Each structure stands twice: as C-alpha cells, then as structure tokens.
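Exercise (ungraded).
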Amino acid sequence: MTICDSFVGWSAWEVLKPTSLTNTTWTSCLGTKVSAVLKHCYHRRLAVVPQAGNTGLVGGSVPVHDEIVLSIKKITSTFLFDDNSGVLDCDAGFILEDADVRLAKDGFMVPIDLGAKGSCLIGGITATNAGGIRLIRYGSMHSHVLGMEVVIPDKHGTVLKLGSNLRKDNTDLHLHKLFVGSEGQLGVITRIQMQTVPKPNSVQSAFLGVHSFKQCLAILRTAKQMLNEILSSFEFIDGETMQMVEQNAGLRGPLSVNSVFPFYLLIETSGTESVHDLAKMDQFLDKCIDNELAADGVLAKNVSEAEHLWKIRENCSLGLRQDGYVFKHDLSLPLEHFYELTEQIRERLCGTNARRVCTFGHLGDGNAHLNVTTPKFDEGVYQRLYPFIYEWVVSKGGSISAEHGIGRLKREYHHKLLDPQRRMFSSNIKRLFDPRMILSPYKMID
Amino acid sequence: MTICDSFVGWSAWEVLKPTSLTNTTWTSCLGTKVSAVLKHCYHRRLAVVPQAGNTGLVGGSVPVHDEIVLSIKKITSTFLFDDNSGVLDCDAGFILEDADVRLAKDGFMVPIDLGAKGSCLIGGITATNAGGIRLIRYGSMHSHVLGMEVVIPDKHGTVLKLGSNLRKDNTDLHLHKLFVGSEGQLGVITRIQMQTVPKPNSVQSAFLGVHSFKQCLAILRTAKQMLNEILSSFEFIDGETMQMVEQNAGLRGPLSVNSVFPFYLLIETSGTESVHDLAKMDQFLDKCIDNELAADGVLAKNVSEAEHLWKIRENCSLGLRQDGYVFKHDLSLPLEHFYELTEQIRERLCGTNARRVCTFGHLGDGNAHLNVTTPKFDEGVYQRLYPFIYEWVVSKGGSISAEHGIGRLKREYHHKLLDPQRRMFSSNIKRLFDPRMILSPYKMID
C-alpha cells in the first residue's frame, strides 16, 4: 500500500508559509500529516519505507517484506526562491528537472545533475546524497543542503526543523548533515533548504580518444590546472563500453571513422563568457594533442553536437543492458587504481561465461561504474565476482558504493566490511531517532 | 594543565602509515595517545577541553572551571597529499597557513581562508566549521571534509575512522559530518582527509564606494551573474567602520581624496587566466558605474595594491578595538535585513554611552559583524542590547552565530532560543559519544 496515494486531496492541502524559518513552532501541514502517519506506525509497530522518485539502483526505496510505502511524491506545495541569496526552500516532492525549470526563470539551477533528473525527487537526492555528472565542479549535496524539515518515527512523530536557510549558521550540532545520505534510516525528509548556483551562459563540450589510462590521468591533471574554475564534468568511457553504445544503442562516436581507442573522455566546461571558455578549451585541447596525451579529439560546435556527446555517455548503461545480464557496480577508487580493477576482473573471468568486462564513469571524482555482462544470470561468474570485487576495492582504499548508496543490494557486504565499532555508533544513532526500528528495515542499518 | 605539552617527545612519535584508509584496524599512534588520555579522563570523570589554535572568539577552547586542556598543537606527524585527486590527509595539528605553504608546491591550496590563518589549526577549523573570506566561492568545511579520525571520550577511548579520503563515498551514515562544527562536544579530531582546490593563477581585487545598501545588494546580484565562477570574495564595510580604520589603524582608503561613502565593498575574483578575469572585472565595474550602482571604484593594479585593500578589511576589527570597549557580534541575516539591524541598534542606543554602531562582514554570505563601541564596558548599553539583538535576528530568520560558533559566550542565548525538541536530540547524541559528559562542558550542549 502506498500511503500517500491513499489520502484524498493530499495535493490540495495548504502549507502555512513560515514567517521565519527558524521559528521553531512552525511546521508545514504536510510535515504534520507525515508525522501522523509515522506516529501511527510507531504505535502499531508497522514498518515503513519512505519512497521518493524510486529511481535508486540499490533497492533502498523498495519494500522487502510487508513494509508500508510512504511516498513523498505529492509533497509539492511550497516552492520559495530568494534570488538575493540563491537559496531554494521547497517541499521534498519536487522532481529535480521541474525544480530546475522553475529556477531557470531567475537564472539559477540545482547544482546536482544526473540521468534520472526527470523522475528523481529533491527529497530523494538529499536522502541518498546523489552524485552525478557535475560533482567535480559543485560538490555533493553536503555542499548545498543548508537545512531541512524531517519527521522522526518516534512516539510523537516529532517534526524537526534542522539547519536553516542561511549560508552560514554555526549554532548547535549540524544535525541536518546526518540526514544527507541516510537513506531513510532516521526520518522522512519533507522539506529542504538548499543553495542553488547561477546557471552558466556558456557550456563547452569536448570528446577525446586516448591510448592509455595513464594518459587519461595526465589529461585530468591538465584539465584541473587549465580549466580549473570552469571544469564541470570529466567523464570516462572505455573502448568496450563504447563498442556497445555504437552497436546496441545505434549511436556513432564523434571521432574520425575507423579510429578506435581503448579510452574516451567527455569533458565539459560551464562558465559566464563563451569567448573566454572557448579560448581556455582550445588551449587545453591543443596541449593534450601537442603533448601526445590525447590521440584525437573534437569540440562540439553547437548545442546539438554537445547533446550527441552526452547521449553517448547516457547510453553506456543502456548499450550494455542489451548485451545480456549485467553485473553492475558503483565503486569509488583512488585514481591510480581506477582502471586496474577492470583489468583484474577480465583476467579473473577468463574461461567463464562472461561476455564483457567494461567500465565507464565519473573519472574526475574517482567513481567507476564497472560492468560485467553474461548471456543470462550466471552463478559461476557471480561466485568469481563476489566477495572478491568488494574486498579488492576496500584493500585499495576504495568504497563499494560511490554514489548509489547501500540500500538492499549492498547490505550484506556493507555489514561485513564496516568496522564493528563504527557500526555500533551508527546503530545507536538510528535507535535514537527510530526507537522501534520501523523505518527502512533490512537495509543499511539492521 | 595542558596535557599535550606535558608529554615528553610527543612530536617525535612516529605515525604508522596506513596501507589503506578504510582499513578499519589502522589507527595513528597519536590517535592512540589521545585515546589513552580520554579513557583515563572517562574513568576518573575528569572534564576535558580540546584546544587547537585557541583563536576562537566565543571561548569554545578555553576551560571554564578546572577542565584539563588537551592541546592538539603537536599532532603534526602525517601530511600526505595526492596530487591526482587533490585530497589532503593530514594530522589535525597543522597550522592552516603552513598547510597552505606545503600545498602551494603542488599548485593547490586549502579552500578556507581567514584572518587567523597564521595560528588556527586544521583540526580547529574543522571542529568549528570555520567560515572566512572565500566561503562564497568554495563553501564551508562541510564541502571539503571527506573523512577524519576522531577519538571518543568513552570507556575505551574509542578511535573511529569516519568517512574516507574519497570524493564520493555513500556507505553508512555520514557520521564525520556530525563532527564538523561540533565544537569539541563529541570527540577529539586527530586527523582529517579533505578536498583541496587548485591554486588560482590570477587574483583581481576591486574596492567600491556605494551610496545605499540597496545598491550594495544590486552589486552583489550583478557580481554573481557577471563574475559567477571566478567570484571569490564579496566583503562589506560601512562608513563608520571605515572611518575607524583610517583614524585608528592609520590606513587610507583607496578612493578619491575627500570622497566619503556610507558603504564600501571589497570584491575579489580568483581564476586561471588574468586576461579573461581582468576583462570580466572591467565589464563588471563598468556596469556598476554606468548603472549608477557604485559611486566610485578602483581595481588593484598589482599585488601590493591588492594587499592594501585587504589590510583595510583585516583592520576593521583592530580599528574598532581602539575606539574603546567593543560589543562584538557574528550574525547571519537574510540579505534584505542585513543592514536594517545596524540602523535599529543605532536608534535603540540613542542617548546611551554608545560611541559607535557599525557593521562590516561577508555580505556575499549574509554574515554581518555588527559592533557597538563604548568608552568602557557599559551595563546600560548591555541591557539595551541583550537579549533584544538576538531575538530580533531570530525573528527575521537569521542566526546568532554565523561562523564563530556558540562556545561559552553565546551559550545562554543559544539554549534559550533553541527548539527544546531539537535540543533533546542534540543532547542525546552527545550522550551517545560522551556518556559521562566530560568533553567541553558548560558550553554548546549542557
């Protein structure tokens, strides 16, 4: 049962406009309704899964047994924007793309951008600390979330106002930061105050073909130095992924016909002045070619060419899906080990039913999406992959979840790998907010 | 007693280099020593105040009664920098400026910059979530801290490794964020992993004279639009503060002789390409003058002129100190109310012994340093100021502490103003980490 949808007239409920966000007596009407639901569930010991856009890839917002799904989709009454400070104060149910369209009228945007922007919700990207393609420039949700309203699954269904709508506020513990990336373990986020950024006037996109991974890293260093403040994306696609995109998604790479490379990079800048940005991008590309870091490259001449480059990147996942069953991964790795794992897994899966081992991802942030395809689910490949892959990642100082979170899928490995002392502190914090452990059970924290 | 100084050879202790930061069995030797101290204090119920550079302005690192001062000044064995990722992994005792000098060799810098950089420590700016003059560009310490080692004042003196040295890591609750800005209430931070940023090649500084506060806000909006990605500081000085700087610090303003303005702005950009940045700054200044937003302005022609402009800004506090006793404030205010309070307080103190009511600060972040001077401490002025000023700030949706924290000084008002429910959650979280309430007592959390 989806509780939210079962209420008649939910979307018509009015929200009291706060006279002041730090006025502690103020609570939104929608917060009050969520409070009533959580209070009821507390007293009846009913398990609850908060659900935003349900676009997550680790099953975090999906019920495991008989949990009640508490959708926040219709919590969309309040949308206040202050164009002096650039601070957005909105309900958690707004779709990221819709929020962006509204902000664009004032020349601003949400700093986070990801493939699911058309269906993921502001509340969901906060609860999962979503990453995406512009993190290298703007940072994660921790850099943007200033405050929130959150409903606690305790005996009162307590509604807490944490943080504020101020860019600088050093009063009390920064409790709102605890809810960023908490995956619905501690409470239900119903409203968010966040910093937005001015929308860039000039966006430049380039696509490079590269012979070695070492050269990819040298190009990243060069981009950080030469593009610095305008660098907004640094994406990586290996040759095998590219082949899948061309074959299965029917998209042609933009580089010279017949030239095939083991690595490709999609680099984007965002700035205020296209003449300046183009000059910087030209100098950067010249340096990459002159120093023989990149073998080939193109700069998108217009919006439609840039869109084509991003279409290639966005179709990496889709292209692989058509290759059969996909063992997907979302890993964070120190850059020197970023591609080493792909090579290791290729060796390890030699002689099995694995079709392809390939990686794409956000190289600028050390985030590798390593994928293994097989004709159909294959127990032999599964056994060769796990727990080897996660243990290898941890042994190199990496993370088994860069941006997708733990949810249901990575729960087992997460529990095995986490320091027991730290796990105890996490559990105790959960118990503080969720004394009957009714919120998002069977997932990140048991 | 300062515990750290009483240990012989502390600075000579070696630190084990971790093979992996997420290797949960690893603990630095210094962390182990701090652990022994806290464990001892737990069992003997001795109160402890962790102290970093002791540069705070609210008495957070000063003992109130008979607490033991645990200095982290000598925790300076490890300084590891990865120039691929730009991640710094260092002990908490490094002085901010010293860390910056080391990073400069690789072309990087700590994103945070503040007046006390010559004596504040990396551990201290993390524990207080320090702000400073570049926050408008790079965000607060929450945007930069990726992980930390922290020692908990429990019966084991538990050493926790929280977060990691990875830019993207969505595993477990983001507990390290709870320690940023916690003012030593939960544990002692002994080591930090943080994102640094490439050092800019080009820095441009301008100083403007402005007739009205409304025009100051219009200039801020224009700067955000036109300077956007290179805007790194937007500082505000009112006429009365400027007069004090000229009189008491012996510094001359850079604008035309005989021109006196009610407001001054110091605006700085940081970027990679001086030709581009100068062109942007020129266009921006032209727009400010042509649209009659600014009445007068200069652009620093060289480093020494820029240094002079910053000397004026840095001497605001000093200039006022020589005017007598100073009632200082560190307020966050929605921009539309930023200067209203100064005018209100001027009216309110009419007929008292107050000499001056003036404000300078980080307008770009809504952070007002409002100051009231009197010949010597004045009870009448005190009574007219408090609690009025804090209640006014809160009624407008502001914060009584923007960047300085609560410490000892703002404790009373903080406790009065905070929502009791939220206060209870903060207290319970403190109790979780600090069961005997021995760490930093009589301050933010009672």
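Further reading is listed at the end of the chapter. For now, observe: The first helix of chain A runs from residue 3 to 6. Residues 323-404 of chain A form a domain with the Alpha-Beta Plaits fold (CATH 3.30.70.2740).
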